[in-house]
User: Fold this.
Amino acid sequence: MKKTFRIIMLSLFIAQSLVLYIVEGMLPVPFIAPGAKLGLANLITVIAMYSLPRKRDACLILFVRVLLAAAFGGGINAFFYSVAGAVLSLGIMLLLKGVGKFSILGVSMAGGIFHNLGQVLVASLVVANLKIMLYLPILAIAGAGTGLLIGITSVFTLRHLKKLPIYKRMQE
Amino acid sequence: MKQIINKWDILLVAVLLVLSLIPEGIFYMTGNDAAVHDTYAVIQVDGKIYKEVPLSGHQGTETIPIKTDHGYNLVIVKDDTIGIVEADCPDKICISEGFISRPGATVVCLPHKILIEVKSAGGGEPDVIPAH
Assistant:
């Protein structure tokens, strides 16, 4: 990718994930457990991971998104939760993608589970009570569920994205 | 439609879900699962911790006389409640506060600088956990 093209592609991805983050904040979500949410913004992370050849591009998109999301509506408290979730989920997703045996669905579901693991870990730290960890099974199921939906959406989006001429330029 | 999920994915998610039960198992094994609602009372004199008394599960009556330079108080732990029943301070407000048992509740004797506070084990239970 040329430098300018790369900057524009990354900004587009970041803008899209930010919009998803803000829209998600407007959606009423049934309260399952503290920290459980749709994670729509993660959709862009998964798509970026599978459409951009370099790992560090996906990392950059996620990091800037988390930073800007905190600036736009989360606040510093949400920032720490987001960072923990983001680092863990992207870490496991890149790892599993590297293994090569798992499809997008599996990778994205593992990402959802690890995102919620990050939430629970930070929550335990914040209230200094390890019993928050007892929420983990519920949150893991919720994370697998949202990860499944994100994965399915990514599969369909990528299928169409690959037909676009711009996709070839992204691979260069 | 092309197959988009394979057996490895299912295996992976199943393993992760089982792993998520680990904290549950640890708390079950160590047997302090019921301790979520454990309460204990902290008696402070002059800002320093004088005594900590476990409250939940406490049976019977236990008296704790507190004699300091400021005066005399008699603290009684009755089952899972705690209160001051005797004091030689002039206003006796601490006695009128009665017995307390819920986390966060306090009995104060200002003239004698005594503070009894009920706390829950594990650093308090937040009503709301901020998570995003």
Q: What stands out?
A: Chain A touches chain B at residues 34-35, 37, 74, 77-78, 81-82, 96, 101-106, 109-110, 113, 117, 119, 122-123, 126-134, 136-137, 139-141, 144, 151-152, 155 (CB under 8 Å). Helices of chain A lie at 3-26, 41-51, 55-99, 104-127, 136-161, 165-171.
